[in-house]
From TrEMBL:
Superkingdom of this protein's organism: Bacteria
Keyword 4Fe-4S assigned: yes
Gene3D superfamilies, alphabetized: 2.40.40.20, 3.40.50.740, ADC-like domains (2.20.25.90), Dimethylsulfoxide Reductase, domain 2 (3.40.228.10)
Any Pfam family matching the protein: Molydop_binding
Record-annotated 4Fe-4S Mo/W bis-MGD-type domain positions: 38-94
Protein name as catalogued: Molybdopterin-dependent oxidoreductase
rRNA-binding keyword on record: no
InterPro entries: Asp_de-COase-like_dom_sf (IPR009010), MoPterin_dinucl-bd_dom (IPR006657), Mopterin_OxRdtase (IPR006656), Mopterin_OxRdtase_4Fe-4S_dom (IPR006963), Prok_molybdopt-oxidoreductase (IPR050123)
Listed SUPFAM superfamilies: ADC-like, Formate dehydrogenase/DMSO reductase, domains 1-3
Keywords: 4Fe-4S, Iron, Iron-sulfur, Metal-binding
Annotated segments matching region Disordered: 782-843
Length: 843
């Protein structure tokens, strides 16, 4: 089966309330048959945030393929195109980093580990003596393992004492965490993937699920194509596959003007109040702030909402009516809401809808504030993104003391005198030189951060010593002073936690190439070189292996909302991943949170005391305690304010960025997969039919897109984007992955974006920039955009996207799995992860 052309695979529809049938997807290297595989090694896919259970095929010491795990509660055996075709080919690339590099006379040259780490430690010690711990900054990824994040957090917070720690999760899912804290007291996904099987309405807010989480969308399709489908409501300025499914199921596609999400959400919320569809008894018992919220949304009538958002007022009423009349609504949220100037306010407004109807914590009634990366949740839990480990509150002295006792350090070493530093501020400090050492791991900010020309100047300037650890010589690594070769997925052991809190163990399948080392070993090497010690003179970091690091993390999480104390490597070697909290009381984990209507808002438990959603101003501990939340959730609102930059006579269009189904982030891995690269080999720009006609642009013409900050050039796809908007994928750097010296940056969408951020989550603003489009030349053929999803053309003559032969899909494999209820009729009478997990062998 060509899974490039058929992204989601064959359908297995089933009735509401029954278990999603299993279907095992598999792809092996050309010329390798299943009987040729030496062994299969358990893992989970790391090319989106879904966290699909899988097994790695190993032959002659090399990764040669992957297959899904039928018994895994996340994916029931399915894998998407990125997982099938992109998981492993990169590992065998000839351009892997295999030795450390150091900069000599302006050039990166190979060296040994002792020299490279010695140079880092020398600079680090000098900066600590001259400037103190604020001279150090760490910028990490959402793709390392839990054990590596926790080790880095201990080094940064207890070894160095720097608050300058963040990850590229700031670019994609910082708002998810911020919204949870503002509404419920702490981070932590309240909903579950199993809610898809039980909901009677599905709302997707700024979430192009068909392309960002393909297996999750397959799960949705298997319900919407059943005889009793849920209605779908899609909020997206492009006509995505989700929008098409909304129209097919009798739902609504709302295509608001870019940058107006809060106005739309206020309009939907007002309609719930006006129609009397608020569960007033539940709201009174379990929430605070309802009257303030009602006053905030009162001006946003359907007509006023329609005026601001450029949508139909009746569509606003229909969407609100579906939410208000449905018994079980599942809402999912992603970048369309997160990468905005009012990101947290918009995401919190989704919580408000659910709280007003008492629809949280029960089957089919929940929220999934999605992540963009496979281990973004671990970054947040472990404290590698600036937060304190275990969802502790940096402004609660008792929480700081807990960590100080656990690590046996002086509590004043742990930075807690001010909010942790977010990524864009860390880069500002590096630009100014106050951060003199910036350590970047497993991410490529030279392509992924906003206003990328500025980022290149920061990384390439002499004011900051830059360390990069990665798999390849990325655009960022080429600017570094020291480059450290890292081991990747399948080349090391560790755990990671997906969007709905499900923890998987990924076992080492093969050896890394050359002298490449795991990120854990690299961090331990640095700790040894710096000789970090606790109060008793013992080594600060007391573990040497991934399992020892996991056990240390278990103790750090014990008693906190993200409690891992009931998990172990042995337990995670079972048939499925397990969601936290996993404790003696809940040995198989908990499928969804807040079913009892009690939230983590107690002052001694909460992770934050909250913010003003409009200004970002913090709520003081005294003000918070005066509210006496007592386990009640917060209803919070904010008025709509226009985006920082709007269309003008000079720049009449609005530029927005996003993803395509075939690539992940900056293509470090997926760009090295022949199938994925052939499907989307180069950047493109999407225009609506009316805008293309006005500009004299036809399919495939080369266009130049300009903003006040920079420009990009690409061939045009005349397609499904809303009139007035211009879309481009952000994945593409200046050249192909094997290009030695990049010079042309016209492929980078982030040349145009702004260095501004949401006042609460500090997530940068990728979704709106004023722009103009100029036709440059005839492109000589159609745009290199796929034809399979939201980027499909209006021109029917464009050849369809093909190119993924060899991916097998076998529904029969699941039938051979003992105990797995492949027949929906065998679904347990109860509900939730416990019932599903028991079926594959935990009963």
């Amino acid at each position: 089966m060509d899974r490039i052309a058929d992204i989601w695979g064959p359908r297995t529809p089933h009735p509401r309330g029954t278990v999603w049938p299993a279907r095992v997807d598999r792809h092996l290297q050309e010329g390798v048959a299943e009987e040729d595989v030496d062994r299969w090694v358990r893992s989970a896919c790391v090319l989106c945030s879904n966290g699909c259970g899988c097994e790695i095929a190993v032959r002659d010491g090399r990764m040669v393929g992957v297959r899904g795990v039928a018994t895994d509660v996340v994916n029931h055996g399915r894998l998407g195109p990125k997982g099938l075709y992109g998981s492993w080919p990169w590992a065998n690339s000839a351009d892997r980093l295999t030795r450390p590099l150091v900069r000599e006379n302006g050039r990166l040259v190979e060296t040994d580990w002792a020299t490279a780490m010695g140079r880092i430690a020398e600079v680090s010690r000098r900066l600590l003596e001259e400037k103190g711990p604020l001279s150090h900054g760490f910028y990490t990824s959402g793709q390392l393992f839990l054990e590596e994040y926790y080790t880095l957090a201990v080094i940064g917070k207890a070894g160095l004492g720097t608050p300058h720690m963040d990850g590229n999760t700031r670019l994609c899912t910082a708002t998810s965490a911020a919204a949870f804290k503002e509404s419920f007291g702490t981070d932590g996904q309240p909903g579950s993937y199993t809610d898809i099987e039980h909901c009677d309405a599905l709302f997707l807010f700024g979430h192009n699920m068909p392309e960002t989480q393909t297996v999750l969308w397959a799960r949705v399709l298997d319900r919407t194509r059943a005889d009793d489908p849920p209605k779908v409501v899609c909020v997206d300025p492009r006509r995505t596959e989700a929008a098409a499914e909304a129209e097919r199921t009798g739902g609504v596609h709302l295509a608001p003007r870019v940058g107006t999400n809060v106005a739309l959400m206020n309009g939907l919320t007002r309609e719930l109040f006006e129609s009397g569809r608020v569960d007033t008894d539940w709201v009174e018992r379990h929430t605070l702030g309802v009257e303030d919220l009602r006053a905030t949304v009162e001006p946003y009538t359907p007509e006023e909402t329609a005026r601001i958002c450029e949508v139909d007022a009746e569509d606003v009423r229909r969407a609100a009516r579906i939410f208000g009349e449905s018994d079980r609504v599942l809402s999912t949220v992603l970048q369309g809401f997160y990468q905005s100037h009012q990101a947290t306010a918009a995401a919190v407004a989704v919580h408000n809808l659910h709280l007003l109807r008492g629809m949280i914590g029960r089957p089919g009634a929940g929220v999934l504030q999605m992540n963009g990366q496979p281990t973004a949740q671990n970054t947040r839990e472990c404290g590698a993104d600036g937060d304190l480990p275990g969802f502790r509150n940096w402004s609660n002295p008792a929480h700081v003391r807990e960590l100080a006792r656990l690590w046996n350090v002086d509590e004043m070493t742990i930075p807690h005198w001010a909010p942790p530093t977010h990524a864009l501020q860390i880069f500002r400090y590096a630009e100014q030189g106050s951060v003199g050492l910036l350590w970047i791991s497993a991410t490529n900010p030279a392509v992924s951060m906003p206003e990328s020309a500025r980022v290149r100047r920061i990384l390439g300037g002499g004011q900051c010593f830059v360390v990069v650890q990665d798999l390849f010589l990325t655009e960022t690594a080429r600017l570094a002073d020291v480059v450290l070769p890292a081991a990747g997925w399948g080349e090391k052991t560790g755990c990671f936690t997906n969007v709905n809190r499900t923890v998987h163990l990924s076992e080492k399948a093969v050896e890394p190439p050359g002298e490449a080392r795991s990120d854990l070993d690299i961090f331990l090497m640095y700790a040894d070189a710096m000789d970090f010690r606790d109060k008793d003179g013992a080594p600060l970091v007391k573990w040497r292996t991934p399992e020892e690091a996991f056990d240390a993390w278990r103790e750090c999480s014990r008693g906190r909302p993200c409690d891992y104390s009931g998990l172990s490597y042995d337990k995670l070697r079972g048939p499925t991943g397990i969601p936290w909290p996993c404790t003696d009381e809940h040995p198989e984990g908990v499928d969804r949170l807040y079913g009892d209507g009690v939230f983590n808002t107690d002052p001694e438990l909460c992770e934050t005391y909250g913010h003003d959603l409009l200004t970002g101003g913090t709520v003081t501990p005294t003000e918070y305690r005066a509210k006496d939340p007592a386990g009640r959730a917060f209803l919070k609102g904010a008025p709509y304010v226009p985006p920082h930059e709007e269309a003008s006579e000079e720049y009449p269009l609005l530029f927005t960025t996003g993803r395509t189904v075939y690539h992940f982030h900056t293509r470090t891995k997926t760009g090295r997969s022949r199938e994925l690269n052939d499907a989307a080999p180069d950047v493109w720009v999407e225009l609506s039919v009316p805008d293309a006609r006005r500009l004299g642009v036809t399919e495939g013409d080369r266009v130049r897109v300009e903003s006040p900050r920079g420009a990009m050039e690409a061939r045009a796809r005349v397609g499904q984007v809303a009139e007035g908007a211009v879309f481009a994928p952000f994945h593409y750097g200046p050249g192909d992955p094997d290009e030695a010296v990049p010079e042309d940056f016209s492929r980078q969408a982030n040349e145009l974006t702004m260095t501004v951020w949401d006042p609460v989550s500090k997530q940068p603003y990728f979704k709106t920039a004023a722009c103009r489009v100029v036709r440059v030349a005839d492109g000589g053929g159609p745009a290199p955009a796929p034809t399979t999803a939201a980027s499909r053309p209006v021109d029917p003559s464009v050849p369809p996207t093909r190119g993924g032969p060899g991916a097998a899909t076998s529904a029969e494999v699941a039938a051979d799995t003992p105990g797995y209820p492949n027949d929906p009729a065998q679904a347990p009478a109860g509900d939730g992860h416990i019932a599903e997990a028991a079926a594959p062998g935990r009963s």
